[in-house]
Specification:
Strand order of the largest sheet: 5-8-2-1-11-13-14-12
Helix content: 40-55%
Number of helices: 9
Shape: globular
Distance between the termini: 59 Å
Bound molecules: adenosine-5'-diphosphate, magnesium ion
CATH class: Alpha Beta
Number of strands: 14
CATH architecture: 3-Layer(aba) Sandwich
Structural class: alpha/beta
Radius of gyration: 20 Å
Strand content: 15-25%
CATH topology: Carbamate kinase
CATH superfamily: Acetylglutamate kinase-like
């Protein structure tokens, strides 16, 4: 019957309308807010995940938030260093960034990975601008103290000058985790560290770290021990107790750094799940681990 059609359609639309309405308070709450997102690892592995990430970020921008993307190199750096036959050296188990490797890191991070993310955001409808630490003096770096080991051009953040990002407010900034010192020398910096410092310098409301696990586990061998919400003090205790290893160490150090410097909340979320950024921001329960001061 002819008048059945609109009725059925209206019923179909109801759940979609609910989803949009659920997003409304979050759109209002985060209007104009800066949200720093560390992108990398698992979420960079497949074309589908890359596209879904770009659409999430574009949506945030188009509803009036200010997402800032920070990224590392992912597996591309090792891949190209193999291809070019660069010798990989380790000192006390840590990878050394010598001069040829630093040149490659810049080429891959700034020339390839950064531009790919910018292109994906363009496709998703949010014009983006790619930057490295030397653009506008954004990330002033110096050599990281390696202790006994000389790790070459591995740097730490000395200062952030956010003025260039303020000028780019119509665009989504995409920042490669490369810093520069006063002499023009580039340094490879951990992207989690850069995201934490950038969030602090920008007075971000949130910092979101995409990773390759569900979130932070109290006991890494027990998947049931996922922490869905905790305070800064709990997180410090967890780190001090040695419950955190490998790549989670710089990530949680960045979380602590950001929260100590006024960032409202930090989230460690699963980058393997499509649209995890949207789930985190637009739903009551969120996803992954939420840390507040
Ligand atoms: N307590 C913990 N909770 C969650 N992950 C942990 C913990 N301790 C160590 N990890 C490790 O940290 C890894 C995430 O960091 P990393 O390998 O640098 O990936 P990414 O930089 O893509 O986030 C996880 O895959 C896991 O092996
Ligand atoms: Mg990592």
């Amino acid at each position: 019957m002819a008048d059945d059609a609109p009725t059925t359609r209206r019923e179909d639309l109801q759940p979609r309308v609910e989803v949009l309405l659920e997003a409304l308070p979050y759109i209002r709450q985060f209007a104009g807010a800066t949200i720093v997102i560390k992108y990398g690892g698992a979420a960079m592995t497949s074309p589908e995940l890359k596209a879904s990430f770009a659409r999430d970020v574009a949506l945030l921008k188009l509803v009036g938030m200010n997402p800032v993307v920070v990224h590392g190199g992912g597996p591309d750096i090792s891949r190209y260093s193999d291809r070019l036959g660069l010798e990989v050296r380790f000192e006390r188990g840590l990878r050394v960034t010598d001069a040829p490797t630093m040149e490659l890191v810049k080429m891959v991070l700034v020339g390839k990975v950064n531009k790919e993310i910018v292109a994906q955001l363009h496709v998703a409808g949010a014009p983006a601008v790619g930057l490295a630490g030397d653009d506008g003096g954004l990330i002033l770096a110096d050599k990281a103290p390696g202790g006994e080991a000389d790790l070459g051009f591995v740097g730490r953040v000395k200062a952030i000058d956010p003025r260039v990002l303020e000028r780019l407010s119509d665009f989504v900034p995409v920042v490669a985790s490369v810093g520069v010192d006063e002499s023009g020398q580039s340094y490879n910096i951990n992207a989690d560290t850069v995201a934490g410092r950038l969030a602090a310098a920008l007075g971000a409301r949130k910092a979101i770290f995409l990773t390759d696990v569900e979130g932070v586990y109290r006991d890494f061998v027990d998947p049931a021990s996922l922490i869905s919400e905790c305070r800064l003090g709990d997180l410090r205790a967890l780190v001090d107790a040695g419950a955190v290893g490998t790549g989670m160490i710089p990530k949680l150090a960045a979380v602590i750094d950001a929260l100590e410097h006024g960032v409202g909340a930090a989230h460690i979320i699963d980058g393997r799940v499509p649209h995890s950024v949207l789930v985190e921001i637009f739903t009551e329960t969120g996803i992954g681990t939420k840390v507040t001061a």
